[in-house]
Amino acid sequence: MSRESGEEEEDWIGTAHPSDPPGGKDSNARVIVHLDLDCFYAQVEAILDPTLKDVPFAVHQKQFVVTTNYAARAVGVPKTGASVAEVRQRFPSLRWVNGEDLREYRRFSRRVHETLLRGMPGCPVERLGMDENFVDVTALAQKRLGEGGGEASSADSSYFAGKIFGGSVLDPSDPAHCRLAVGSRIAEEARKLVLRETGLTSSAGVAGNKLLAKLVGKCHKPDGQTTLLPEDTGRIMSTLDGARSIPGVGSSTAALLSERGVETVADLQGATEAALRGPCLDASAARRLIDLSLGVDPTPVRQSGRPKTIGLEDRFRRLGGREECAEKVRWLVGRLAALVFEDGRMPRSLKVTVRDAAKEEGKGFHRESRQCKVSPALFSDLRTSDTLSERSLEEITAACMGLLEKAVDFTGRFHLTLLGVAVGDLLETAKGTRSIAAFFGGGGGGGGEKRTMEDHSGGEVGKRRKQTGSTGPECPEGWDREVFSSLPADIQRELLESRSDPPAPLHSSNKSEQKKRGPSILSYFSKSKK
Ligand code: TTP
Ligand code: MG
Question: For labelling alongside 468, which of 235, 286, 292, 456 has CA 20 to 30 A away?
Answer without folding.
Answer: 456
